[in-house]
Design a protein that fits this description.
The protein has about 475 residues and is an alpha+beta fold. It contains 15 helices and 11 strands. The protein has a 5-stranded antiparallel β-sheet with strand order 8-7-10-11-9, covered by helices on one side. A two-stranded antiparallel ribbon has the order 1-6. It has a two-stranded antiparallel sheet with strand order 2-3. Helix 8 (about 205-215) crosses helix 11.
């Protein structure tokens, strides 16, 4: 509770001394007011002079003079009782259906790195713990580190799986293990350049920016594939030539450099509209667009510099100029379709126009919001009652709902924030509860429910609470 000095005025004693409540208020304000003075200048410094109210405790408050008549003072203690009491609360915190507890929240500065902040807080907790009474302990119930690690893990998994599939597809289509390996090696080089550019522009490694890199992983090898395949073709076709290996590779790169540059720039142009987004959409998608553009530019640089060098060192000519099995099968399926399309040209164009118009007709049905769903692994429930609800009533209802929630074995702990704290960082009234529900890892769930079915079951169960 917040400590407060409370003056309990007795109206009968006020009448006795012919005083009003305004006289009491004025007397307290006069006797504990801060007053500004002037400046004292000394050398190159100046000091501000002010007088500070000197009330220290209950005796000082009781000795405040409210009125003096015929030399006889009327003190505050003559018309009121002074005591120490709690400030009227507008909020409380309960946990796991066991009643009230004390909660603290770390508020991160704008633009700060959440991972660094959380780690710093964890290092500071032991020192804070030592200053507390022995029977009081600090137990974190919501730790953003889990969210950060989940985000990093998701992106790392996507990059890892994407790299594996890229290597497999490259090997099947190029038919050259060394060429496929060289193209695959362009991935870490591209990521390295991307991170350098992100650091240069101050783009943090967050879910959206790293997600952009994961999405771009299939595109960043395009330029390297074209360059490596053209080098392989030139080396095979000119294997008996007297021209040096370096000159052949240089000519092969120059041959495809212009179309490769244009192709990458066209893809980058596609992401330009994302830079026009504002407010929340801009905050969400600009890092993604920036990272993808950096990755594509990095892939272009790698394709025109690193890939030719690796090819000159490790790539060998094909034994034959004939296409590999994968390409032959694709051509066998593609050429009949191509011939049919060329034979019935107007029908092909008509079908394309119809499909295009059908796509345009869907535009009015598209939503205007496209923020992604973020699964933190935790749940949040907001409960709102009538504005006339008291804090005590909200606490009782919140505690009852905590007990209902803990019947779900997937739930680890429930902390309920009711109303607002003394510093009012969240302007909620006592009629509102915010439930923070921490879940066990999904691989430990024994009910066979998914996250969606768990949420649906919780909603159905809590509907019984008015």
């Amino acid at each position: 509770f917040v400590k407060q000095y409370q003056v309990l005025v007795d109206q009968n004693r006020l009448l006795k001394y012919r005083l009003s409540l305004a006289d009491v208020l004025d007397g307290i304000q006069r006797n504990n007011a801060n007053a500004g003075g002037d400046f004292i200048t000394k050398g190159w410094e100046q000091a501000y002079v002010r007088s500070v109210g000197l009330i220290k405790g209950i005796p000082d408050i009781e000795s405040i003079v409210l009125h003096a008549k015929d030399g006889t003072p009327v003190f505050l203690k003559d018309v009121a009782d002074v005591q120490v009491g709690p400030q009227t609360r507008q909020g409380a915190v309960t946990k796991d259906g066991r009643g009230e507890t004390v909660a603290g929240m770390v508020i991160m500065l704008r633009g700060a790195n959440s991972k660094i902040v959380v780690e710093s807080v964890k290092k500071a907790i032991p020192a804070i713990q030592d200053s507390l009474p022995k029977d009081v302990s600090i137990k974190p119930f919501y730790d953003r580190t889990a969210l950060i690690q989940a985000c990093v893990g998701t992106v790392a998994k996507a990059l890892r799986e994407g790299s594996i599939f890229v290597i497999i597809v490259l090997f099947l289509l190029l038919g050259n293990f060394r060429g496929a390996l060289i193209v695959a090696l362009s991935l870490p080089f591209t990521a390295f350049i991307t991170f350098l550019l992100m650091g240069w522009q101050g783009v943090t490694a967050n879910l959206m920016s790293l997600g952009g890199l994961a999405i771009a992983i299939g595109m960043v090898v395009d330029a390297s594939i074209v360059v490596a395949e053209n080098i392989a073709r030139h080396l095979t076709e000119r294997s008996g030539s007297s021209t040096s290996r370096v000159v052949i590779i240089q000519e092969a790169v120059v041959e495809v450099a212009r179309p490769v540059i244009f192709a990458i720039l066209i893809i980058i142009v596609v992401f330009v509209p994302l830079f026009t987004l504002e407010e929340m959409e801009g905050k969400m998608f600009k890092p993604l667009a920036t990272t993808m553009c950096f990755a594509l530019l990095g892939s272009l640089l790698v394709a025109l510099t690193v890939v030719p060098v690796l090819c000159s060192l490790f790539m060998k000519p094909h034994k034959t100029t004939r296409d590999n099995l994968s390409i032959r099968l694709l051509k066998r399926a593609y050429f009949p379709i191509l011939a049919l399309a060329l034979r019935f040209r107007w029908a092909t164009i008509s079908v394309s126009v119809v499909i295009f118009l059908a796509t345009i007709s869907l535009i009015p049905r598209l939503g205007t919001e496209f923020l992604p769903q973020l699964d933190e692994g935790a749940l949040a429930i907001n409960v709102v009652r009538l504005p006339s609800a008291s804090l005590e009533g909200s606490i009782a209802t919140g505690t009852a709902m905590e007990k209902r929630l803990l019947k779900f074995t997937e739930i680890k702990t429930v902390v309920t924030k009711t109303g607002r704290a003394e510093i009012s960082e969240d302007p909620m009234g006592p009629e509102q509860n915010d439930f923070v529900i921490m879940l066990h890892p999904e691989n430990e769930w024994k009910t066979g429910r998914s996250k969606e079915t768990l949420v649906a079951a919780i909603k159905e169960d809590l509907n019984a609470v008015p």
